[in-house]
Request: fold
Amino acid sequence: MQKIYHDGKYYTREEMKKIVTDYYNHVFTNKRDRHMQMQSLLPDDLNKNSYVLDYGCGMGGISNLFASKYNCHVDAVDISRNELEKAIITFSEGEHKIDFIMLDNFGFPPNKYDLVFSSQVIEHVHNPGIYLSNINKMLKENGYLLIGLPNIVNVNYAINLMFFSQKRARKHSKKMLENYNKAMHHINGWDPLHFITLCASVGFELVEWLPTEGTPVSSILYRIPIVGKYLYNLPITTRLSYTMFFLFRKKFDKKIEIYE
Reply:
């Protein structure tokens, strides 16, 4: 019997399906989780005739969310065969139309999609301009890009920078040379201002920006009786979030060449 690798262990297909289902049941009901928070950005003008791409679909829960919300066709693409297998096990036999595709077999079809969703992917990408240019190519005129990524404007980043030294820098360089893992290590990072600038340079206009997940500071504030939730939602704390989501619209075609 084929077993699926997950979190350092191997599971049967039925065990894996339960793990994935339980995970998404949790994150889709937790008001402080990015999977729940980002849903406030979902457009209202998509329908059963729409096409959605989940670019970096992982275990497939967001693909299923789009298929359920809009009753539309969803293409779900990932670079990891193992993650895609988890998605297929859990969501391929549902009532909704989802095609799970390995990135190696994906054709990047032009002008096909009404919305492209991509979360926690671009920070791992070696060529973010080309990555965004490919998304631009695949979107229809005025199509949406809903994208999530880490926010470098947070407390952890500031603390790490304060203690960064020549010795730590060299040690980190050596460690990455020996142990770099594309799926685990971030090679890019942005604050909201520069990320909006990057996306504008590739033809995308911002519709809305949403800080998500909070920070260690805001999590502590959240627990303070009576006033905690108010303090947690203040702009000064939400803007120091671990992650952030952006909803963009494609305003014009833009191809980034490899030499750019």
Q: What stands out?
A: The first strand starts at residue 4 and ends at 6. The domain at 4-155+187-215+243-250 is CATH 3.40.50.150 (Rossmann fold).
